[in-house]
Input
Amino acid sequence: MAVQEARHGADGGEPWGAHEGGCTCGDCPHGARAGHRRAVAEFLLMRDGFAAGQGLPAAVAHSASASRQWVSEELTQSAEAVAERGRAEGAAWLARLWRRTACAVWASVVVLLLVQALTAIGAGWTAARTAGLVAALVVAGSLTAASWFHRARGGVLAPVIGEDNRLSTSRAVAVAWTLFVAYAVLVLVGRLAAASDSRERDALLSGLELARGAGVVTVLAVVCGIAVLVRRVVGLRVLGQRLQKVRADRPRAADLLTDDSGRGTFADIQYVVIGAVALLFAGVRLARRPDQLPDLPWGLAVVVLVSAATYVAGKYAEGGRPVILSVVRSREAGDLDGPIRTGDDIEIRGAGFVPPGAQRADRLSRMVVRIGPVNVHVPLVPVAGGFSNPSDEVLTVPVPADVEPGRVEVQVVTAAGAETNRYAIDVTD
Output
C-alpha cells in the first residue's frame, strides 16, 4: 500500500506534502501525518530497489565496497528525512491528543450518570448517588484544566509519559489508583457536607479511619513508591550503560504491555491486569458501601503487592550491556584465507548491538565501530524487507586505510550511546 502510494506521487499525482485543503507546510496534524506516511513509502521503495540491485550509478557499480558505501549514505539520508517527519507527526499528535483525553474523561462522567440513573430505577435517587456524581464532576474538571495546561505534552496523559516518550506502566498504574482514592474521598466529602444528622456525620468520619481502608492505602503507597523507584532504577541503569533506551516518536497504548521493541512482556502485562482487576473490585466495593473507604481484602492486596514485586524484578532483569565476543575477517566465497589487512571487512560477533526500539534505519545508521583511533560508521546493507547489516549479533565493517598495522582495539558504540568492551585484533600490511 505504501509502495503504491509512493508510485502514485512519483507519477505526478498529489504532491508529497499536500492533503485536503492544499496544505503542504507539514505543520498541521494532517500534513505531518501525510508527510510522514509518504516519506516512509519513498524510503521503502528506495531500500527495496537497492536490495534488488537497482538504482546504482555506473561510477560505483564496479566496486562492491564503493557501491555498498554509496547505498548506505543514500539510505541514511532518506532515513533521516523519515525520522524528521516522524518527529513532526509525533509532536502534532501530542498537541491534538489533549482534546481526545478531555472528551474521554467527560464521556466517563456521562457513563457514570447513565449507570446511576439505571440503577436508581426502583431504588430511588440517594444522596450517595449525588455525591458520586459531584465527585466525578470535580475530578473531570480538574483533569480537563490540567490537560489544558499540558496540552503540548498529551493533556491528561502527560504525567504517565516517560522520558523516552513512551507510556510508563508504573506511572499509569499509580495514577489510576491515585485518582480512584481521590474520587472515593471526594464521595465521602460530598456525603459529609450534605449530612444533617450528627450520627450520620460520625459514621462517615469513622469510614475514613485507617482500619476501614488499610488495604487500599497500602496498595496506593506501594504502587506510588514503585513508580518513583522504577524511574530511579531505569535512570541509573541507563547512566551505567546496563540498559539501552532510545526515544520513541510518540507514546502508544501498547507501551503499557510491551517493551521498547513492541514485544509483550510478562512483568508489565501481569502488573496491569492484576492492578485493573483489584481496582475494579475496589470500585464495586465503593458503590456498595459509599459511606467508607473501599475495604480491599488483605488477600487481594497481597496479590497486588506480589504483582508489583514481580514488575520491579522484571525491571531489574531487563536489558544488559552490549558485548563483543569475537572479531574475525569476513570472507567472501572464493577468497583466500589470511590475516586481517587494511581494506578488508571484519565481522564483529556479540550481543546487544541493536537496542530495543532501534530497528529503524535512522537508528541503525548511528552505530559506530572504533577501530583504533578511527571511527567507522556501520554501513546499511539492504535486503528485501529490512537490513542484513547491522544486526543485533553481527556487524560487518571495513578496516579503513587510516588504521595503522599492528595490534588495535575494536569497540562498538550503539545507537543508544552504550559502549561495548574493547576487543584487540592484529592488523597486518
